[in-house]
Amino acid sequence: MRAVFLGILVLFKCRVYALEHNFTGDIKNFVVGKDKVYVVTDSRLHQMRLNLVEEKYKDLANHTHPNKINILLPFEANRTLIICGTYDCGYCEVLDINDITTTIYREALPVVPANETSVTFLVDLVKNKLENPNGNKYLLVATESERRNGKEKCNFQRGVTLWNTLHSQKGDIFSITSTEPTDAIVKTKADVEWVDGFQTSSHSHSYLFLNVKSENPPSVLLLRMDNRGKKTEMTRSLTGAQLECCDDKPRRKLLSSAVISSDATVLWAGIFTALEEHEDTVLAIFDISDPGNQVPTDFSCEPTCTNKEKHKVLRPVSVVFKHSSMTSVAAEKKGSGIVLYIGTGNGQLIKLVLDKTFRPGCAMVLYRSNDDRMLFPRMYFDPEDDKYIYIALRNQIRRVSVTHCSMYKTLRDCRSSPDPLCGWCLNTSKCSTQHECSDSTWISIPDKPFQKGLISFQVAKHFGNSLIQLTATLHLGVESPGRPPLFLCTFRSGSKDLCDGRPTAIFPNCSCSFSSQDLPSEGLPVIATVTIGNENLTESLKLRNCSDISATSTHVACTDCVSAGCHWSNSSQTCTWNDGSAPQEHIQDMCKGLFTGRYTPEILSLWPSQVSFHGRNNAVMKGTNLEQVVKIRLQGPMDCSAKESPVLVRSSDTLRFHIPSGNKGTVNVCVVTADGSCHSHATITYGSQPTCTGLQPRTTWASGKRQIHVLGTNLESVETVTLHSFPKQTKLNSDNKSFWFYSDEGQYQAPGSFGVSLSMGNITVPCAERLFYHPDPEFTSFDTTLVDNDMRVTIQKNKDELNVTLKEMNVSGLQMEEPFPCLIVEVKSTAVICMIYGKKYVSIDSLRIAFGNITKTLNMTPSPKKYLYLLIIFIILILFGGIAGVWIHRKSQRQMNARMNEHLELLENEIRNEIRQGFVDLQTEKSDLIENVGAIPFLDYKHFALKIFFPEGGPLADGMIKDINQVARTELDDRCQVLSTLIRDQMFLTCFVHALEEQKNFGIKDKCTVASLLTVALHSDLPYLTQVMENLLQSLMDQPSNAQPKLLLRRTESVVEKMLTNWMSICLYGFLRGSVGQPLFLLVSALTQQISKGPVDAVTEKALYTLNEDWLLWQAQDFDFSPLKLKVLFAVGTEGEVSEPLEVKALSCDTIEQVKDKILQTFQRKFGFSYTKQLREIDIEYEKEGSYVPLEEVDGSSEVQGEVTMLNTLRHYKIPDGASVKVFTKKVHAPLSPQTSLKDDQNFSVKYFHLIDPDIDKDESQHPERKKLKLKEIYLTKLLSTKVAVHSFVENLFRSIWAMPHDKAPQAVKYFFDFLDTQAEKKKITDPDVVHIWKTNSLPLRFWVNILKNPNFVFSDLEKSPHLDSCLSVIAQAFMDSFSLTEQQLGKHAPTNKLLYAKDIPQYKQEVKTYYKSVREQPSVSSQEFKAFLQEESKKHEYEFNESAALRELYKYMQLCFTEIGQKLEQKGASPRLKEKMHHVQELSENMKRSAWL
Length: 1494
Hints:
This protein is 25% helix and 31% strand. It is of the alpha+beta class. The strands form 19 sheets. It has an eight-stranded mixed beta sheet with strand order 47-49-52-51-50-53-54-48, with no helix packed on it.
């Protein structure tokens, strides 16, 4: 039992003790308490254990509206968590710190506006040590200054205030009331940005740090207050000073900070920058113990400040680190040193150690993300284990180890670690922290941690030069709780001791004396062994007569001198004996710059200069005198030691070498000659890992050589492209930020898909899309037609999926082998059209067609007359055959009638039994669908909107949104600025839309694209977009083509109709996510569970339980299946251990892949997270009589019918109920194959079958059940079973859509329905059915049906299979039938999808009428109220869409009808200035083209 328990711990270690946790939304705030972690995302507050396992979550109230949680503070002494949000002018809650779902107290309170900064922390105002500290604990809240652009809607409390934390305090909880008549407040007139704040460890002072933006130039301020007995005493004690950084240039913005120590001396670290983009940042250390007795300018106190207003400046005691993009810092004091943890904008966590003089050591990277996601501005140490720190990156929180001692296996390696926490534990002989080495001698790094050598030597002469003293110094520190460890040494030359007597060993020095006569002129090799405890350290050196050391090269002479323990004088460039002082510098430091070669190597260029952090193979360096170079040295600002790479290919002007992996950032490169000196200088910048998001095109012909463009990021660092199953690597070409490769020649002519990987350094990155190989284009014939003086050639071809473009083919017409170029003008699915210009009298007898690396010749098709004779002969044969067939048929019919009568009775009995069994199943089946699905994976707003706006996706859609790493505000170029102004002129925009729609080649797809581009471009001004949409709708209603008003808005045939779809999606996203999202997700989950409840054919995906008749599994010859309960064991560890059994429900007819899928689904539902391996990465075994039998889809025992193989099932392996099945990871052997599943075979449906027998001739004598006649109608009851099982989910979904929370429909619905009512009145439409149809076409048909049929638009990671899509279509049809005004006349021939919900539709129709009536009777939404709603929606997603990209695409459409737009503006009487703006846009575009900017 103990072994099983240990196995379970191993299995779940990566989850239960997770080092990371990913959320569905981005992290907005997080804090670490005494034993919990609290994380705020877009819509939830999460409570987690310190091991990052989520315990509880709390939906934030009304999270569909702006609700920024700007105060998140654990009150450990009171065991509560204080949170404050911005919804509805603000509120604060006191939650149970161990259960955030329990609200102890809540109060509406104007705290901080959503778009402003604040700093909050707890302060203690304790008068004496006997006083209860909790009774005087307050919340210090610092908010921005008063708004200057008008009155606020909410009465926010500004400045620095002290809030009560308990009901027992005067004024009750959250009150700022003081014990004195005047409230205690610190105010400022300046425009400030609060950054950080803290209370000292002695509770004596509180510090605040802020940026003053309104000053010219801006500045960084420090404020300090004394934590005295009363609130007013504290605010009156305000003092402050300006923080100035740095000497090289002014950096007047603070990004993040951390207190290092807050004892008698308060040390503080801050990250400063000179730019808004956080570039060129520095980390500076300040002593802020005494900021002076002055109040900074523009700050005041209530009551009046004790000190006077005055200016004082504090400057850093040390600037310790520079980096391009630091974002956060945390600090801790370790002994006499300081350890800093630095987060960067490109996703790195850096550790930096400072000695007691603030001198920085080598920086080391503790964590590095694959992409450039930025670290959150705040980090927290683990309160229980100081070896860990918590960081946040976008939607991920991680617990990162800050010590990597265990990676060093020897004392020498442990000593080389720059980490002061690491040392060597003598008892365990391991590198560890001192805490892990209790009651044992701990060998630590000394106060000079950056000494490069472990043992150094010096030699000196004594007693008239007759004795030589050799001293070895061990650069280690020893901390022993008791008796010091053994310390001794030996010096040997060959097999004998060197010393005259026993060496003198006094830690850390060990000395040996010997006669100078024992030192020969050629030198003496010596091996020194130093023993400390049970560790032996050995170094070798060659002793020489220091005065005799010389060489032709000064550098060589210096190296020989220092390595022999002698003293080198740089001034005289001579070697002498030591005088007994401390050892001199390391050889590299002492002898640098002494190269005396005749020709110095020089670097002229280096390619590539930008690589990913994985490195790069075969880099090329150009220069002069490079034949002397033996290796390349790379040294980065964060590298503790230089990395060196050998030269692979060398000439006088060219080197080829491999760039090793490194940390993100820029490193210096130099070339190393044989004497060890480094020359010249170049740089290499390490960036993030490349990503491959797509391929364009995704198909290629089998013969290869098609140009495939790669889409993604950081592609410039990719070396080669690999197609799985193809041994050859392909070069990735680039040109002007475009990257492509040529496809390899395929191995098969049959269609197939292959994975694509990008290679750089020694790793590969898979591409998100696969490359599909199809047979080469097949050209069947061609004909020619004269067009004026030219010849048009039409080439017929077989239809294919290659989507060949004009540029990919080259055609030439041949007349007696003389070629005539044929220019391709159009490529269709079944034809290619090209023109031979100016060759009217040429007679083409063949064509030469080239594509890729293939050239085909197509000859002219012969005359069809000979086929006419063959056709006549064929008809005569058919007549004779028909006569013979009639005679034979009559004879055989009499024999067949007798046999048929014999079988009819048997068939009737079989059908009767099956119908009865279907009735029994319908009445006895139980619905056991699981309604608890855990967290719902909603897509965020911008990706939801993108799927609505551009449902087909593609590069155009991808360019419409911004990444989180993009700058929030993107400046528009001149052309886009003018065009943005133009489209905000309603006259121009309506003329633009109408002119486009009048173009003959402006199709429906173009109209939808323009509508979505306008939506993106105007998303920041939704009130104006609404106004334009109403104007265009009125124009649409007035068109003569809309004489039948009932047809209005039925289809998307105009720009405004697509615009209406987008508008509805924007306005109803909050209602969708808040009210409809959960019922929709539950319905999809219920459908998926119900489908898998019964048999599902693994080949056709048809199921016994479905809503759609077309997907009903009725052809199966044997429905005799039984449910099984399997005991599933998971292999853990490497010694054959298994976990405790997991019960999994399966069917005897399930294939092995279906069983594996059900195991993984059950694991997910049971434990709340996915199994560590995917379906394709696991295999299963069946335990039979003490041994395990592998279960496979196909093996040697599989049933074969003709050339078709039946997939193995549990019944095939005769697996009983309650059997034990073990899951283990597949063993993959090189070379890897991308086909890890039978379904990867493009002929899967032809080669294999499951429940539906293949249509082949076979001997069925051994399987008489397969002769049974199967009728679909018998199994139609299964449709009803499925409908009954999911009916409650369907009704909940429908009623959530037409529900009216708080008796109010969504504002957008009420507003738009009123608009339609108004238009009907204006047009004197009295028929109420017309308005009902308008509303139905606008809301249910245009929005809700789209959501019902495409739940993947709403939820992430939701795979919509064709079967699920068909079931959702049935539900969507029933939904629309509920809004229909016509009565359905259904008969026996009516489609089943109509019959399924026929009895429910009348009830739904009644509810819909009530809904429409309630909306109509609801009080109207005022224009001002709805405008405020739209403005709020715009601001909420202000920087999520790429307005520039949308404007550039709109200009392309503007170019198509530039003249027509001008004409319409003339007709409308537009102002000359408006037309000038339009021409100005055109001029700017032409100028940009001429300047090669586009």
